[in-house]
Amino acid sequence: MVTSVATLMVSMVVVLLLIWFVTDSSSSPVEVTITTGSDSNPPIDTTFVVGDVEGSIRLGYTELRWQLLRLGMIVLALMFAVAVVAAWLLNRRMFNRIGNITAVAETMDEHFLDARFEISAKNDEIDHMATAINAALDRLQGGFERQRMFVRSASHELRTPLTVARTALEIPLAEGRVEESLLPDIEQALVAQSRLEELLDALLTLSRGEATTLELVSLDVSLQRIVHEVQHRTNLPEITWHLDCEEVSATISRTSFEIAMSNLIANAAVHNVPAGWCSIGLHNLEDHIEITIENSGPTVDGDLLARISQPFVKHPGSPGVGLGLAIADQLVAAMGGEMNITARAEGGLRVVVMLPGA
Fold this sequence. Notes:
CATH class of the largest domain: Alpha Beta
Oligomer: single chain
Radius of gyration: 44 Å
Distance between the termini: 57 Å
Largest sheet: 5 strands, mixed
Structural class: alpha+beta
CATH superfamily of the largest domain: Histidine kinase-like ATPase, C-terminal domain
CATH topology of the largest domain: Heat Shock Protein 90
Number of strands: 9
Order of helices and strands: HEEHHHEHEEHEEHHEE
Number of domains: 3
Shape: elongated
Helix content: 55-70%
Number of helices: 8
Strand order of the largest sheet: 4-6-7-9-8
């Protein structure tokens, strides 16, 4: 549309120039001969020179030219205004469509892929782009749906053996068929079973992308209890523990928080040196809650540090399978927080967890 208007404007300019130059021709004097007479008298030819036509009608030509020029300028001005308005409307419509695409894209994540971009009947470049993106979203949504189906199936398959194992422990315990010397071991196994079930629930909930239940949690109380459980579970009496925890409460997922902290604290205890130490700090800062976990473990090089929060990555020769930090990182992110890991020059790690303020 803008191109057509510009072409028309150029044509009008050319026409105006032609009018200007064509009407700018000079006139020369005109001779007029008048013949008079009758049947009885011979004819007499009288010749008159009618002045200089340039002097008599030049004023009329000049006035006509200026009128045409003024008219042409008015038409050009109107056409220019129309072109500007048309270009503005066209750009506004185009940017509105781009803005709509941007707004829809900002609402999408791995949990919400149902929205699609509107396709107009213009079949222009924006429609082609929107069609291609819609097709890509269809493929992504299909992939996530297949993943959710797999997670649901895996959940069922994992819960069945866990339920069988719990039943095999609880029935003899309830019937009094367990020797007293075995009671601590059975109770410890049931605690581990409960923790495994909670871990499964948290991981399945996280993988499904469903929101966990939020509640007001006393973080300092939870950390003290987790440290006690880790001490009992790891059975490392030579480790020295330092706790510096303020009284802080936050509305978060208790399960996600406790599983993440349990993994981090257990990781600090297990990946340590003989007669080492672990330090846990909890502080309520102005804009966030900060939890620090440090230990006196082995030296960690830069390459390992860059990958240490990835699944199945751990220090060579250390126990475990390398999932503790990866699980903690995902759970912290699901709570809207951030986890940073740095290596201590003397050996060991410093893990800083930042959660949204209370």
